[in-house]
Write a structure and sequence with these properties.
Helix content: over 70%
Largest sheet: none
Number of strands: 0
Strand content: under 5%
Distance between the termini: 36 Å
Radius of gyration: 16 Å
Shape: globular
Mean pLDDT: 94
């Protein structure tokens, strides 16, 4: 694996900010109160992490679809089928309360690493892809875990 280029690294880390905000508002009641009063309840507590997590897991389907376009004609159908799994996961598992939705999002983010690895191993993801994905996924899972355990 090679060094992560600055743009993907910085943008990827910036993409974790809503997850970090979610965890911070769970751990700091005064920040949560300020957020609810200033921005609204959907931007505080586990809710922002759950909503944003659903968006990002679905977004990852698009990223993987892009990788599938680089596969050989024989392997592409499997790649396309695998790429839609994260979005379908969100569609079929989101709901049922914050605790259950959080647990299933955590499982989805952990499982997508297998798909990331598959496309990386096939040589259609950048050489630095797994380093970036492991870093971001660790932050996301930690923040979602804070949201569902408090």
């Amino acid at each position: 694996m090679t060094q992560i280029p600055k743009a993907p690294l910085y943008l990827g880390l910036a993409g974790t900010l809503p997850f970090l905000w979610s965890a911070a508002t769970v751990l700091l009641p005064s920040l949560s109160d300020w957020t609810v009063a200033t921005l609204g309840a959907r931007f505080a507590g586990p809710y922002v992490g759950l909503f944003y997590g659903a968006v990002i897991l679905s977004f990852m389907s698009g990223v993987l679809w892009g990788f599938a376009t680089k596969l050989s004609e024989a392997d592409a159908p499997k790649g396309y089928a695998l790429s839609v799994l994260p979005a379908l996961w969100v569609f079929f598992t989101h709901g049922g309360g914050a605790f259950q939705a959080g647990q299933l999002l955590i499982l989805g983010f952990a499982a997508i690493l297998l798909l990331d690895w598959h496309f990386w191993k096939a040589g259609v993801a950048p050489s630095w892809w797994m380093r970036l994905r492991l870093l971001i996924t660790a932050v996301v899972i930690l923040c979602l875990t804070i949201g569902v355990t408090q």
